[in-house]
Amino acid sequence: MFDPKKILILAPHTDDGELGSGASIAKFCSEGREVHYAAFSSCQKSLPAGLAADTLEKECKAAVKELGMDAGKLMFYNFEVREFSQKRQEILEELVSLNKYIQPDLIFIPCKSDIHQDHQVIHNEALRAFKYSSLFGYELPWNQKHFSPTLFIKLSLKEVDKKVKAVKSYQSQSHRNYMQEDFIRSLAKVRGVQSNNEFAEAFEVYKIISK
After folding, report:
1. Cα–Cα distance between 199 and 187 in angstroms, integer?
2. Which is nearest to 67 in space by CA: 9, 109, 143, 136?
3. Per-residue pLDDT tens over the stretch 33-85
4. Phi, psi dihedral angles at 138 (to 5 degrees)
5. Would you say residue 1 lies in a domain?
6. Hey, which residues does 19 pair with through a beta bridge?
7. Beta pairing class for 34-39 and 151-155
8. What percent of the chain has pLDDT over 70?
9. Which one, of 57, 25, 39, 14, lies nearest residue 155 by Cα?
10. Cα separations in angstroms, 93 against 88, 119, 175
């Protein structure tokens, strides 16, 4: 029986975890599961002019609070946005350390077809670092050429609402079309229809290890 107790969300950049699996995070937290979140860049170079360097870190803290996460299980790294490939070995070593420290049963990572260069590094190095854990890939449609979900997590309206509130915490990113409430709700509805539920989030499954 697959019943993960410790779950780790790997986000190349702050907000990727919420966008790809936010409602599922809310579900896991409400079920009392131990959820950890690691963000590898706070994307300081991508911030609109005039904003403080720690803006996205503060917004991420607010976002995971909306999802019901323990703030003490949120971790930040300082890799430069769009430069992960140059730090691939360092990122792998950090992932190996996370595996030893947390010993997660389930890890969420960007999907394999994600074309963002940083997302590709996190996907590939996670496959190396977490050889003996279950691995699911989350969708970020604006970065994907294709997505082949084989797992759908059933969601309640309350959990979708929490995801919407979490994403709205990123005021510095509110100009982006994929941060809009109608998009988030529509995607949850589409995945719900595909799985005969009202709402769902969809994932690619790379490995399941039953414990």
Report:
1. 9
2. 9
3. 999 999 999 998 888 888 999 999 999 999 999 999 999 999 999 999 999 99
4. -95, 160
5. no
6. none
7. unpaired
8. 100
9. 25
10. 9, 17, 35
CA distance 35 to 56: 20
Amino acid at 136: F
- Is residue 144 helix, strand or coil? strand
Q: Token pair of 204, please?
A: 């690619």
Return the beta strands (E) in 98-157 as ranges. Answer: 106-110, 134-138, 151-155
- Give the residue-averaged pLDDT of 106-128: 98
How high is the pLDDT of residue 178? 97
Number of neighbouring beta carbons within 10 Å of residue 170:
20
15: CATH = 3.40.50.10320
Count: domains in the chain: 1
Q: Structure tokens of 141?
A: 């449609």
Q: Which of 59, 26, 19, 25 is nearest to 42 (CA)?
A: 59
Alpha helices in 157-196 (DSSP H): 157-168, 181-194
* 0.90 surpassed by pTM: yes
Domain around 130:
6-207
User: Which amino acid, one-letter code, is at 64?
Assistant: V
